[in-house]
Specification:
The protein is 54% helix and 19% strand. The protein folds into three domains: 217 residues, Up-down Bundle (Multidrug efflux transporter AcrB transmembrane fold), CATH 1.20.1640.10; 86 residues, THUMP domain-like (Alpha-Beta Plaits, 2-Layer Sandwich); 104 residues, Gyrase A, domain 2.
Length: 431
């Protein structure tokens, strides 16, 4: 059996957490009390620049195409970040044999500025390192003839002895000669590798390397080594990007749409809460309170993640509100069935939750699977919808099973019994 005192403490804690989440989620209040950033709005709400680049993969082998595209995405994001643009969205779109990169820059309304940020195909180069004087910090990087044009590609490998990850780089025949000469005169010295003028790695040459194959090993993880491979391939393989579409999205429509979406969600939530109270009485009252707590807690999670709000994302959240109520309805209907069987109020509620859990679990898991598929196999606004729906469904399960249940356990009559007639429960005994 459970302790009512502990449950009361838990309920107070949940209520306080919901209040804090609501305060945290409401920008005008939170901004006055902290330096935390505001909500991150998507392009459809904040306005900005929308660019579409065609990626020419005709000269890239099929096995290397994914790595090249991932490397290009990484380079574009880094270039945009250098200009102080927060939360840029860069994602891949495929249609048949056509591969495109879509760049969304919320808040940047000068398309020419956005185009200049991104530039063209990334440039990979190797530079010699010269130290002047006795101070190791006085370092000069000297350009060489070796650059990404002479690199065939790179791939992830592992040391056969230590098992540590390493990057295997292969040069063209002309690049092999340049690399052999470069390593021959820098044995025991580092060679700096730059991508778009930014230092990405500075390995030390152990010996002169001939044959056009090199291995870069170091104290990096598998993910770091894979990222380095992507950057090598992005700057090495011939995969030029061409701007095929550009658009400036105004913020006026977004602000109006956001206000209407929030108002619609608020009205819908209130109507659902009133319906629950009217139909299920005290049970409905607890469900309405749990629903209000669900909304504030979920918005708090959205802001912590953080979730970039779009109209599609807001739609996913509003849909999850309905699903949160659906779980309560399943529980309440099961509870009413148990009351009709003559169980006490306490026993009926516990049995109602137990019997409804399998239906709640299965329906929500199927929705979570659908949301996950949408998130990983689609792009743009559909991913925003899938993300908010996924988080919302998880929070709705917590709301129905934990918050509503705690309310009922704290406020139900400990030993109340239901009087059952042939037609069911008497009206005065229905909770």
């Amino acid at each position: 059996m459970y302790s009512r005192k502990r449950l009361a403490v838990l309920l107070v804690g949940l209520c306080l957490l919901s209040i804090v989440a609501g305060f945290f989620s409401y920008d005008p209040l939170w901004q006055k009390a902290s330096s935390w950033r505001s909500w991150t709005l998507g392009l459809d709400l904040a306005g900005g620049s929308y660019l579409v680049y065609d990626v020419d993969l005709s000269a890239v082998s099929f096995s290397d195409r994914s790595s090249v595209v991932q490397g290009l995405r990484d380079v574009i994001e880094r270039r945009v970040n250098l200009f102080g643009v927060s939360e840029p969205r860069v994602y891949e779109e495929k249609s048949g044999e056509t591969t495109r990169l879509v760049v969304e820059l919320a808040g940047i309304r000068d398309v020419s500025e956005a185009i200049q940020m991104i530039g063209a195909t990334p440039f990979l180069e190797f530079r010699e390192v010269q130290v002047r004087g006795e101070e190791a910090s006085d370092v000069t990087f000297v350009q060489t003839d070796l650059n990404g044009r002479f690199v065939k590609g790179a791939q992830l490998g592992f040391d056969q002895v230590s098992g540590k990850p390493m990057v295997q780089v292969e040069f063209t025949s002309e690049g092999a000669d340049i690399f052999a000469e470069l390593t021959g005169r820098n044995v025991g010295q580092p060679i700096a590798i730059f991508l778009d003028g930014e230092l990405i790695e500075i390995p030390v040459v152990e010996q002169k390397i001939v044959g056009g194959r090199a291995q870069i090993s170091g104290k990096f993880t598998v993910d770091e080594a894979r990222k380095l491979v992507e950057r090598f391939n992005a700057g090495a393989l011939p995969a030029p990007i061409t701007l095929v579409h550009q658009q400036t999205v105004g913020a006026d429509f977004g602000h109006d749409a956001l206000s209407k979406a929030i108002l619609a969600g608020l009205i819908g939530t209130i109507i659902v809460g009133l319906f629950m109270v009217a139909y299920y009485r005290f049970l409905g009252l607890f469900a309405a309170l749990a629903l209000a707590m669900y909304v504030t807690l979920t918005l708090g999670v959205f802001k912590i993640v953080p979730v970039t709000l779009t109209l599609a994302g807001i739609a996913g959240f509003i849909l999850s509100i309905g699903m949160a109520v659906d779980a309560n309805i399943l529980v309440f209907e099961r509870t009413q069935e148990e009351l009709r069987r003559g169980l006490s109020r306490r026993e009926a509620i516990e049995e109602g939750f137990r019997r409804a859990w399998t239906s709640i679990r299965d329906s929500n898991v199927s929705t979570l699977i659908t949301a996950a598929v949408l998130y990983f196999f689609t792009s743009s606004f559909v991913r925003g919808f899938a993300l908010t729906l996924f988080i919302g469904v998880l929070m709705s399960m917590f709301s129905a099973i934990t918050i509503t249940r705690t309310f009922l356990r704290v406020f139900l009559v400990p030993h109340g019994e239901k009087k059952v007639s042939n037609s069911g429960i008497e009206a005065k005994d229905v909770i």
